[in-house]
Design goal:
The longest helix has about 40 residues. This protein has a 5-stranded parallel sheet, sandwiched between helices. Helix content is about 55%, strand content about 10%. It contains 7 helices and 5 strands, in the order E-H-E-H-E-H-E-H-E-H-H-H. By secondary structure, the protein is of the alpha/beta class.
Length: about 220
């Protein structure tokens, strides 16, 4: 039986390979990652967003975190920033998986805030699995990123603005294509359009929250 996030219930079996936390809001991708990593002998816990991930980490810090970036409630950027600002979690290695934030500037910002490794979706398991094994072998080490609150939210706001513009252009393009779709393309275009609309809404919400936080931090610094 699956839970509300589409995750299969597991028996909580403990293994010697390592404890991984996988954070992903798309059920099919979450199921694939969970199944693959469990089959490889890892103990795997899953979360649907960054907020749920932090709740799990408070109970038991993971050996390694694999997380999507664009997610509801709390995205991957905020999750990593939260981890890096607390001594008990700041050294946990984090792998980013993303199909949205794949520009060189996105990857550079991820490294700046302390992400350990970046992999684009769809996941290439020939790269993904050896990366996990190597990071677990290396153990918990101090992350390279080290920026303050204002620097983080300024950089984060910039990434959100650029992604919002990208999503708006994607939606306009899909809407134009929907005017005269071929039979084979119609379902694909509809799915793409709905996904882009949902992601734009998530980005807009994060953008508003980030602007408010920046105002708060700026006032407190005065």
């Amino acid at each position: 039986m699956d839970d509300a996030c589409g995750r299969p219930h597991t028996d909580g079996m403990n293994t010697k390979q390592g404890y991984l936390l996988v954070v992903e809001d798309i059920p099919d991708i979450l199921h694939l990652l969970n199944t693959t990593l469990t089959f490889k002998g890892y103990r795997v816990e899953t979360a649907c967003d960054g907020q749920e991930a932090l709740e799990l980490i408070k109970r038991e810090p993971a050996d390694l975190i694999v997380t999507d970036i664009l997610m509801p409630r709390m995205d991957g950027f905020i999750l990593v920033h939260s981890l890096r600002t607390h001594p008990e979690t700041r050294d946990i290695p984090v792998i980013f998986l993303s199909a949205t934030y794949i520009d060189p500037e996105d990857k550079a910002f991820a490294l700046t805030i302390g992400v350990t490794h970046f992999i684009e979706k769809p996941v290439n398991f020939d790269e993904f699995l050896p990366t996990i094994a190597e990071l677990l072998k290396r153990g918990k080490t101090a992350p390279s990123g080290n920026i303050n609150e204002i620097e983080f939210y300024q950089g984060y706001l910039k990434r959100l603005k650029i992604k919002l513009d990208h999503k708006t252009k994607q939606i306009a393009r899909d809407q134009r294509l929907m005017e005269t779709p071929t039979a084979g393309d119609k379902l694909h275009l509809e799915a793409s359009l709905q996904t882009a609309i949902r992601e734009r809404q998530e980005i807009q919400h994060l953008l508003e929250e980030t602007r408010e936080k920046l105002i708060t931090f700026t006032i407190s610094e005065e």
